[in-house]
Amino acid sequence: MRNRSLHVGAWLLVALAVIAVAAPLLLPDPDRVDYTAKLAPPGATHLLGTDRLGRDLAARLAAGARTTLGSVGAVWLVSVAIGLLAGTLSALAGRLAHETVARVVDVALALPQTVVALAVAGAIGPGMWQLVFAMSATAWAPTARLAHTYVHAARERPDVLAARMAGIGTVRAMAAHVLPGASARVVVVATLGVGQLILSLAALSFLGLGAQPPTAEWGRMLADSRHDVIAAPWLIIAPTTAVFLAVTAVSLLADGAREHIDPGSRSWPRF
């Protein structure tokens, strides 16, 4: 209960998820066009105003949460699964497998996500699933390196050596004594990068590589607001605030989870 970062981040993320899920029951269709209400300021009819096509901004913001957070979640799951598997296998297998995975990881780390996304968009066209694929192609590399480091170091732990001396196979000993702790630490550290994933996905969507009209997505909403930012500043304030709250929520949640697993890793001062 004293871990405030964990609690604040978790409740903030739950609030965003509830808004995204419950919005279709409470708000109008995010794609419904009403030219009689275009660029309407926030008010009783439209809580956050409307865009240049008269679409309700609150409804589009909630729909964008489902698109953005769902895509980020897909990238995170793929990167954690591939990274944990590749890092563990490279630590347990022979030198050839280790060198192969290490070189692939080096290449993935050397490729900027923006460049990869541009290449994928040029090859198969822009779109949300194409962007998820492009980001996942490089996002797994840091997780793989972390998993390899932890599993490789744990091979010489006393409990693992004792299990192997008792006749338990290496794979079984690692699965029972190392992988649970390795998985927990890898998941927590990978969660620390979710905020960066949100920013990267929003930036790439801002460039037109992600969701295509009329799909609502926070980065796309920021791009569409450029033309009316002076006349209707609420168009840029709403998605910017949503991105800020989402990044803050996952950052607090990840920092609190890391402190819960390893109290000595506290990075935020406690007052």
TrEMBL record:
- Name a GO molecular-function annotation: dipeptide transmembrane transporter activity
So which domain of life are we looking at?
Answer: Bacteria
What positions does the domain ABC transmembrane type-1 occupy?
65-254
Protein topology in the membrane? Multi-pass membrane protein
Provide the transmembrane region boundaries. Answer: 74-94, 115-141, 186-211, 231-254
Read off the InterPro entries from this record: BP-dependent_transpt_permease (IPR050366), MetI-like (IPR000515), MetI-like_sf (IPR035906)
Protein family per UniProt: Belongs to the binding-protein-dependent transport system permease family.
Q: Which SUPFAM superfamilies match?
A: MetI-like
Q: Name one Pfam family in it.
A: BPD_transp_1
Query: Would the keyword Transmembrane helix be found if you checked this record's keyword annotation?
Result: yes
Provide the protein name: Peptide/nickel transport system permease protein
Q: Where in the cell is it found?
A: Cell membrane
**One Gene Ontology CC term in the entry:** plasma membrane
Annotated keywords = Cell membrane, Membrane, Transmembrane, Transmembrane helix, Transport
